[in-house]
Write a structure and sequence with these properties.
This protein has 380 residues and is of the alpha/beta class. The protein has helices at 17-26, 47-50, 53-56, 78-84, 99-110, 128-139, 149-157, 174-187, 214-224, 242-248, 265-274, 286-293, 328-340, 345-358, 362-374, and strands at 5-8, 30-34, 59-61, 63-67, 71-76, 89-93, 114-119, 143-146, 165-167, 201-205, 232-236, 256-260, 277-279, 298-301, 320-323. It folds into two domains: 5-171 and 361-374, Rossmann fold (3-Layer(aba) Sandwich); 174-358, Rossmann fold (3-Layer(aba) Sandwich). The strands form three sheets. Strands 3-2-1-6-7-8-9 form a seven-stranded parallel beta sheet. The protein has a six-stranded parallel beta sheet with strand order 12-11-10-13-14-15, sandwiched between helices.
């Protein structure tokens, strides 16, 4: 039987560009559906700008419906596509709140189509009701895709077949970033935002909201510099806490710089490359991959039940560290240790990129997707 794949997503975020391009270039008959106007505050890919006319035919539009402008509950145009199209393998987001996905999963069973859920899995911190719903929901699918090993382990612990669970990890614009890194290594440009630019600087990237706990990082930098300046802090991003954080930073303003949001990879590459360490006191996501890609170690918390899946890319002591969750003093201690470590950039690049080159790249994700489509045993 010819394997035709229908991949239903919610949006086309910029960080999926390399992965989705790999899917449609390497896998025949791969169709992707998403809502082209639903940004959810995330930078989106313009398909008409990024893909030629032939490749644009690999995409179709859906319409997302939200409850309280927050929870995705229905996707128009998905059910007819599942019901009447030629596609015999269908990938859905593993969000149990989406009614159209439940209906589509049942249709797949009736029509003998393979259904695949792309999910974070089961972390073990779910309420009893949520756990029951998720187990029923995941049980409707033929195959499961998770972002990392922990998600797979959680599902196995609840009785799911390990041979039907594939870890695909996550990635950014791997090939472009590798080119930029090589140029940075050759030129070693400087980053100058501070009064004393000779000091090492910490970088923190992402949305400036309460979940990231950037206030703690600002306080720590101010304390470390209370007697003599020892480091600077570069904060990249926008968010509802920015004004509040800028006021907090005024007490040590010479050592803290708010860069604002940035999507220019060449600029971001330079900012990461020149940083001594990347720190997110709260939950981390793709910023971990971004930092490690440019050879900069990452520090974040160790409460993995609420962490983003990308934390698995960090190897404690080699490419970063985990501080005890909600332990301010331990976070401060870890930051101080990494600032004082005798390191060279060449060694950092090797240590930090180890997992990126092995797993967190679109080439590996394409391999995983091909394995799923062929019905082979998981690579991880």
């Amino acid at each position: 039987m010819v394997k035709r794949v229908l991949n239903i997503s919610n949006i086309f975020p910029h960080y999926c560009l390399s992965m989705w391009r790999g899917f449609i270039e390497e896998i025949p008959d791969f169709l992707i559906g998403f809502d082209p106007v639903d940004s959810r505050g995330i930078k989106l890919v313009d398909v008409q700008k990024e893909f030629d006319k032939v490749s644009q035919q690999n995409f179709f539009a859906v319409k997302n419906i939200y409850l309280f402008k927050k929870h995705l509950i229905y996707q128009f145009f998905v059910i007819p596509k599942v019901l009447f199209s030629k596609y015999n393998k269908v990938i859905f987001l593993g969000d149990s709140k989406v009614l159209s996905t439940w209906i589509s999963l049942i249709i797949c069973k009736i029509r003998n189509k393979e259904s695949i859920l792309w999910t974070h899995g089961i972390y073990g911190n779910e309420s009893k009701i949520k756990l029951i719903i998720r187990k029923i929901f995941y049980g409707l699918a033929s195959t499961l895709i998770v972002y990392e090993r922990k998600g797979k382990e959680g599902l196995i612990n609840y009785g799911f077949d390990k041979n039907k669970i594939h870890a695909i990890f996550n990635s950014l614009n791997y090939n472009l970033q590798k080119q930029i890194l090589n140029k940075l290594i050759a030129k070693s440009p400087k980053t100058e935002f501070f009064k004393e630019n000779n000091l090492p600087y910490i970088i923190s990237t992402g949305r400036l909201n309460k979940r990231k706990k950037i206030e703690q990082l600002i306080n720590i930098v101010c304390e470390l510099n209370s007697r003599n300046p020892v480091c600077n802090l570069l904060i990249v991003g926008e968010g509802d806490q920015k004004t509040y954080l800028e006021k907090k930073a005024q007490k040590c303003n010479d050592q803290i710089y708010f860069f604002g949001s940035c999507y220019d990879e060449k600029i971001l590459g330079r900012l990461f490359y020149n940083a001594s360490v990347s720190v997110i006191p709260g939950d981390i996501g793709l910023s971990a991959i971004h930092s490690l890609t440019y050879g900069t170690p990452v520090i974040t918390h160790n409460n993995f039940s609420i962490q983003g899946p990308e934390h698995e890319a960090i190897e404690q002591g080699l490419s970063g560290d985990f501080y005890e969750f909600d332990n301010y003093d331990d976070l401060k201690s870890k930051i101080k240790i990494w600032l004082e470590k005798k390191r060279d950039k060449k060694s950092d690049i090797i240590s930090c990129r180890k997992n990126i080159d092995k797993f967190y790249n679109p080439d590996f994700q394409v391999k995983v997707m091909k394995t799923i489509i062929e019905g082979s045993k998981p690579l991880i």
